[in-house]
Write a structure and sequence with these properties.
The complex is a heterodimer. By secondary structure, chain A is α+β, with helices and mostly antiparallel strands. Chain A is built from 4 helices and 12 strands; from the N terminus they run ααααββββββββββββ. The chains are: A alpha+beta, B mainly alpha. The interface between A and B is large, with 44 and 36 residues.
Amino acid sequence: MTPERRPNIILLGALIAVFLFLVIFEPSYGWKIRAWFAPSNVMQGAANGGGSATGANDILIENESLKAELAELQTVEAELPTSSANSIRAMVYSRYPFDFKNEFLVNAGSANGVAAGAAVTYGGVYVGRVTQVWSDYAEVQTVFDNNFKLAVRIGPGGYDGLLTGGSYPYVASIAKSSPVAANDIVVSAASGTPYALPIGEVSATGTSPDNLFEQATLSFPYDVNQIETVLIAKGS
Amino acid sequence: MRYRLVAAILLFLIACVVQFSLASAGISIDLVLAALIAFAFFFSFLEVLVFVLCGVFLMNWQPGFSFEMLIFAALPLAAFFFHRAFAWAPWAGIPVMTVCGFAAFYALIAPSLFVIDPAKIVLDVVGSLIFGEITLAALNRAER
């Protein structure tokens, strides 16, 4: 082995050891680096404000009002409870990086009272459930996950259905006689989940492929990719 | 100076920035995996392993072990051994291993996506093939 190859192998071996240590013992540094790489709203900002003077002025005005609102909120931030008797506030630490699932990791775990199966909400709207819990972290499966299923009720009549997750979640198994209509609210109705948590609104109805049931596609008042804090119900 | 290694580091960083930025907008293209598969045709095993572990460190989203990360790490290494075994030129081997690798990735982790949403897979593969070709061109131009 030449002297030049020996330092290279030593350097590469050291790098391998460092990365193995980081992967196994300090994965949170990777999440922070990934969050720094990925600014939020980058596509929306480009779509709304690019190029025109009118667009730039609107952005400046909105920026000023947001600054004022932020200043006001920061004065009371210290007074906001980090949790209540019924829920735990948690920050989104990292998101599932591939296209197979729709999950994210939060910075609250069993040490904070989080339990598997707990309902997770954002602004009072149900967004998913806890699937895996560590002592300081928990994994949340959102309603946009392909494997997500939840019993729900629709509209003032409380018609039963099964929320089926995916890129475009929909409610299946609605009885054909149910007068479900657009803009009807969809709420949770499953055991182990707080009853009547709002999930979304019906945007359109149709018949299932087998023609036995009705189906309803949903609209949601949030962008799951922009969620940064959530509330986790205590208990399961 | 090892211009090729510097080029690879820059390409890896570009793959990270673009992939993570697109992901925050809801678009999923695995550029980091595409870059790692391309690197397997240009670097030694230890160099590829360093890049793979760096990729795992950045892509891992949770503190525990996951099957997805195991496959993510195994695919570039499989590409390395494929290159060693068959000695295909990078211009042929990279696209083949990218398509086969991504097909295996989806088949092992989420086979239902082939039926539920094949467009997602096509978008991922096409985007990754394009980045793989960019990586190939850049590494070919950079001198070792």
